[in-house]
Amino acid sequence: NDSLGGGGLEGGTIQMPRTKRTAVGGAGGKRKPPAPKRYKITPIPAANAEKKHRRYRPGTKALKDIRRLQRSTELLIRKLPFARVVREICQRHFEKGAHTFRWQAAALQALQEAAEDYLVHLFEDTNLCAIHGKRVTIMIRDVRLARRLRGPMR
Fold this sequence. Notes:
The chain has 154 residues and is an all-alpha fold. The protein has a domain at 61-150: Histone, subunit A. 43% of the residues lie in helices and 3% in strands. A two-stranded antiparallel ribbon has the order 1-2. Helix 3 packs across helix 4. Belongs to the histone H3 family.
């Protein structure tokens, strides 16, 4: 016998090594019908059982929110707080006069849409400045650069 216990001469016969073989043809005959499918029985959750919270990878929810906001057309700033800020600025700017200014709802809405449009485009340019600086996080210097590149009152 071989000391390694492998092939060689055993009892006067030569043992051939095993090789991988693939079947060439079918065995023929009738095919068996497929076995009936077994359905997995799932227990009914209790009424007070807490639903498992879905954990998203970092950034997934942010991208989902961005896509949702890009599809929508509604205003992003709440109307009442914006109106308060507008009235406060108007009152501070014209405080020398004794009268208070009244705003039409359509005028406040037009002003809010213009303000939001300005901010959205400013942040688009700011994001491009951050990407140009090989960053994904916007910084105050990106906002300043975007405003400088836009020029006055744009």
